[in-house]
Amino acid sequence: MFGKITSLSDNMQKVRAILIGRMQPIHNGHMQIINEILNEVDEIIIGIGSAQLSHEIKDPFTAGERIVMINQALADEGVDPSRYYIIPMQDINFNAIWVSHVKMLTPPFSIVYSGNSLVKQLFKEEGFEVRQPPLYDRMHLSGTEVRRRILEDENWHELVPRATVEVLAEINGVERIKNLSIKEISEI
Ligand code: NAD
């Protein structure tokens, strides 16, 4: 019985941080920063931003598909599943209350990692410690570049974890992106 109480109090002292991103799709830059964060804190909350969006050229994948990619990528790297939470987050129209919306969806956290200026601003205003992660090879490691290479039949596999390649194969993700792009051009 006493053992249980001790482990509960240990649990409450854990340092937890959040990283929110659209992850369309998850790439090696995201993976590097997630690993860095796990070196610095006990647990990470990975927020899947714009969870309501999918089947759009800039947001092709559903929140569920993105969860599978991230979960599988972390499993492939041997990350202990008790150290991360993956939580989908819909956008809301009110930036001023977005931090409360995020807090409602997540376990308590004290540190925010983001390179996104709006995200940093909103969390700073609510008193959170905000850390700016280094950007790894941003010229190539971005969702925009991965999607561009998929469209142009260039080598995109080198930019993403194996899990992203596998999930896209399962869901015909390459075909989806190409079809979405054809549709959008014809609608101009
Ligand atoms: P993203 O996937 O572009 O990036 C996520 C994070 O990954 C970034 O903070 C960045 O630091 C890191 N990252 C990306 N590339 C990297 C690289 N090469 N090396 C190292 N780190 C890298 O996602 P984002 O656009 O920042 O996501 C923010 C989300 O928050 C969006 O979904 C947005 O809609 C949402 N949001 C919503 C509201 C609202 O609903 N009112 C307000 C603010 C933000």
Describe this structure in words.
The chain has 188 residues and is of the alpha/beta class. The chain is built from eight helices and five strands; from the N terminus they run αβαβαβαβαβααα. It has helices spanning 2-12, 28-40, 63-76, 98-105, 117-125, 143-151, 162-171, 173-186; strands at residues 16-21, 43-48, 84-88, 111-113, 129-131. It has a five-stranded parallel beta sheet, sandwiched between helices. Helix 3 links the parallel strand 2 (43-48) and strand 3 (84-88). Helix 3 (63-76) packs antiparallel against helix 7 (162-171). The longest helix has 14 residues, at 63-76. The chain is globular. The N and C termini lie far apart (67 Å). Residues 20-23, 29-30, 32-33, 49-50, 91-92, 95, 98, 114-116, 118-119, 122, 133, 135-138, 141-143 line the site of nicotinamide-adenine-dinucleotide.
The topology string of helices and strands comes to HEHEHEHEHEHHH
**pLDDT < 50 runs, ≥5 residues:** 1-9
Number of helices: 8
Classify the beta-strand content into a percent band.
5-15%
The counted number of beta strands is: 5
Largest sheet, described in full?
5 strands, parallel
Q: What is the overall shape?
A: globular
Heteromolecules bound: nicotinamide-adenine-dinucleotide
Widest beta sheet: strand line-up: 3-2-1-4-5
Helix content: 40-55%
Ends distance = 67 Å
Overall SS class: alpha/beta
